Amino acid sequence: MNQPVDEQPQQLAGVHHDIAHMSWLVGTWTGFGEGQYPTSEAFRYEEVVQFATDGRPFLEYRSMTWLVDEDNQRIKASHTESGYWRPAPDNGVEALISHPIGYAELWLGKVEVTELINARITGARLVMHADAIVASPTAKSLQSGSRMYGLVNGELLMTYDMGAVDQPHTNHLAIRMVRS
Question: Of 7, 22, 47, 174, whose CA is between 20 and 30 Å from 148?
Answer without folding.
Answer: 7
